[in-house]
Design goal:
three-stranded antiparallel β-sheet; 86 residues; 5 strands; Rubrerythrin, domain 2; flat; two-stranded antiparallel ribbon; 2 helices; 21% helix; single chain; alpha+beta
């Protein structure tokens, strides 16, 4: 099984997947990063452009979810509206 993380951070070139802006970020992996893009003026996905060592692989990319889905707030609010209108 290949490693996904290094024991220490190194600076690597990253590219914004929205506007193409390029910057160096200090990370301990070769996967996507999710910082604020000063060009796009929002948080975006940045892909690592560094050559990955043979004994490494990129970690899984994050999934986009709503906080209400994680916390179960949607179901709570639907139940609250139902009881209010009953």
């Amino acid at each position: 099984m290949k490693k996904t993380l290094q024991e220490f951070s190194t600076r690597k070139p990253y590219e914004c997947t929205v506007c193409g802006d390029e910057k160096e970020f200090q990370t301990n992996h070769y996967g996507e990063s999710y910082p604020w893009c000063s060009v796009c003026q929002k948080q975006t996905v940045w892909k690592c452009n560094a050559e990955m060592p043979d004994d490494f692989e990129a970690p899984e990319n994050w999934k986009t979810v709503k906080i209400s889905d994680i916390a179960g707030i949607s179901e709570f609010m639907n139940n609250a509206r139902y009881k209010k209108n009953a």
